[in-house]
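Good morning,

Attaching, inline, the backbone tokens for the sequence recovery test we're adding to the shared suite. The designed sequence is right after.
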């Protein structure tokens, strides 16, 4: 009897231990998933979100997926909206280096630590574009114009001071031997609206995503002076000269991904890891990458978190070197 009683206690203890180490219960969406876009319609963030929306809707685990554009404040309007949904994993938002540069420049109060990093899907090399009728015909001519009169050209970009596009403008001015603080900049709500301003002759130069410029270049309405890639790219970008080959030290890229609200659980993060990984496996994703002149650069949640920490240090140094921090 003593043996049976002791064995019973032992068995009960094993059951309790097993329950304690059992895998966490799986999670999946129980309602509509909302993708919040940190810019107006038509820009790179919007395109990324709508491509993801279509790919996720093909996944039976999602009841439905919607896109909600919340432009303003260089992304702070969208990210504040997401932060207020914590810890609901049915809400995710687009993000880019702007989330970090806003934090560094103290634009708003949110930081990357206020969210759950979910993924980085791609990298994008910005291009510098002018109207087809512009007298600025190359990167070298651009530098000459800046040296002669730094304020003679207006530079547009979206959608926040100090972001990756702003950094590129600083690089170009430094290559010209001119203080980046003398650049005449105009901040637009999206890359699409900035492109419209260039085509209309209201802005001289656009620094932004290739996909915003390529259709107008192909139609003969705009000209790309250079791309910020380390070497020439493939596909639709193959004919574009790099700034490096023009003797200009301006190599830089943006990345685009998604964040969730703070406080998401491990099962929720695991679900999103699997959802993103599945979305980029299909041929549709590869066609979208080609169409939008993107480069694949997938990172799951844990890797994205580590990337943000290292990028924060890098961006802080770059903005300080370019004088953007002291300007603010």
């Amino acid at each position: 009897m003593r043996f049976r009683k002791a064995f019973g206690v032992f068995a009960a203890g094993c059951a309790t231990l097993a329950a304690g180490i059992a895998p966490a219960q799986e999670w999946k969406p129980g309602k509509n998933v909302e993708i919040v876009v940190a810019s107006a319609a038509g820009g790179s963030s919007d395109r990324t979100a709508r491509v993801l929306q279509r790919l996720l809707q093909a996944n039976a685990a999602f009841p439905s997926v919607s896109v909600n554009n919340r432009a303003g404040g260089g992304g702070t309007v969208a990210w504040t909206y997401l932060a207020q949904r914590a810890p609901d994993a049915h809400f995710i938002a687009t993000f880019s280096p702007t989330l970090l540069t806003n934090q560094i420049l103290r634009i708003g109060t949110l930081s990357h630590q206020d969210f759950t990093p979910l993924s980085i899907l791609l990298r994008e090399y910005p291009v510098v574009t002018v109207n087809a009728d512009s007298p600025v015909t190359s990167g070298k001519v651009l530098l000459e114009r800046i040296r002669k009169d730094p304020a003679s050209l207006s530079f547009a970009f979206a959608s926040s001071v100090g972001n990756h596009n702003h950094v590129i403008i600083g690089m170009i001015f430094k290559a010209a031997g001119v203080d980046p603080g003398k650049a005449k900049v105009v901040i637009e709500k999206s890359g699409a609206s900035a492109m419209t301003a260039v085509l209309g002759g209201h802005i001289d130069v656009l620094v932004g995503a290739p996909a915003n410029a390529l259709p107008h270049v192909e139609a003969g309405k705009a000209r790309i002076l250079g791309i910020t890639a380390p070497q020439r790219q493939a596909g639709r970008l193959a004919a574009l000269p790099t700034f490096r080959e023009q003797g200009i030290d301006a190599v830089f890229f943006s990345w685009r991904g998604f964040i969730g609200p703070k406080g998401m659980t491990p099962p929720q993060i695991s679900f999103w890891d699997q959802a993103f990984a599945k979305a980029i496996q299909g041929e549709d994703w590869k066609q979208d990458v080609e169409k939008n002149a993107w480069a694949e650069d997938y990172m799951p949640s844990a890797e994205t978190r580590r990337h943000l920490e290292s990028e924060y240090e890098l961006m802080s140094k770059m903005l300080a070197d370019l004088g953007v921090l002291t300007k603010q």
